[in-house]
Amino acid sequence: MARRLRIITGIAAVVLIAGAAAGLALAWRPSIAAIAPPRPDAFDPDIIKRGRDLAAIGSCNTCHTVPGGGNYAGGLPVPTPFGTVFSSNITPDAATGIGSWPEAAFVRAMRSGVSRDGRHLYPTFPYDHFTNVSDADDRALYAFLMTRQPVSATPPANQLTFPLNHRPLIAGWKLLYFHGGDVPSDAAKGAQWNRGAYLVEGLAHCGACHTPRNALGAERVNAQFAGGEVDNWHAYALNDTSHAPVRWTADALYAYLRHGWQADHGTARGPMAEVVDNLSSVPDSDVRAIALYMADISGTSPSNGKSPADAVAQSSTAQTDPAGAAIYAAACASCHESNRPLPYGGVNLALSTAVTSPDPRNLVNIVLAGVGGVAGERSPIMPGFAASIDDAQMVALLKYLRARFGKRPAWNDLDRTVRDARAAQAVSLAARDAPGESSQRGKP
To answer: Model's pTM, two decimal places?
Structure first.
């Protein structure tokens, strides 16, 4: 019996040692030798220009530039359910950025989520999408970044809960969820559709925001584009579960992505406004390709198959909150029901996804903060009402808008949603107005 126990114990020890060895082998990645930062004139100007466009499509500046900081110098806090990750410095500074990275190290980070020194990168850097970027585009991105102004800046240390603050565990996450090569391809749909698929599923990483995530922070494979969460905003569903009152077409998506405004769908706000801001500088053909692909895969659901006229006709004043109705009449109707031209005319709220969405946060954020004008565009403007109406009035207005224009079940726990939105906006304003900082992020 004792001999049998020793044999079983020995086998178990061998299994544990083998498992640990396999785990270490999976987690370990070799470092790639550092180089002296390349001279900017070592890169072809045309490749640099293409890299600039690609960086804009990927919204690299949005995550890698903190308000008031140097362009691409990192330090932006990215909140997650597991703590806060701070974005890295991707300027060509040799000490604190990626100036000592050869192209092979940059490509490995994009394709495998591993830094030059062999550390696993947290998937807040969306390498699960960037792994689909082509060799030529990786080369152009590398050329663009290596010709930016070097900035000496070390991001704050990540603030993650134990044991997720140990990077080797990311190897296990990758084993479960990191699978590249998922770009759809269909020759019958034409070159523009396939270009859109490559951009959406790769560098533009649209699913990173618009797909819900599981308990370990990975995109849910059976719910692509079914809606996600980012920075206290709801990223709307883009598939056939969309709650848009009017179906998105390729032309409507193109106008929205190009100008941040479309008459049947409203204006881009929150993180989506930053995406539109970046797309405003890229080739028109790429924006059209993204719009064509997304419109094609969105499908048609009963909730969004109506024409704009049908959607407006279904709005009703029955069973609405009298207090909310009075606030709407005093503060909102003059723009949203006047048919005035832009910038003073607002979208008819019967067409607003913010009103028909199951999540009220976007509408709350917009009412509190308003809608600022876009330079060079004849887009809507709207004052923010954070200082002029209290929480109870906000809740009354939201109930009224949902009942009259949304024609959907009432939202739950609006009091807390309003409080959380005010708190989040207060934090954002404090960061924007901090001494020596600017509200403008770096541009490509």
So the answer is: 0.85
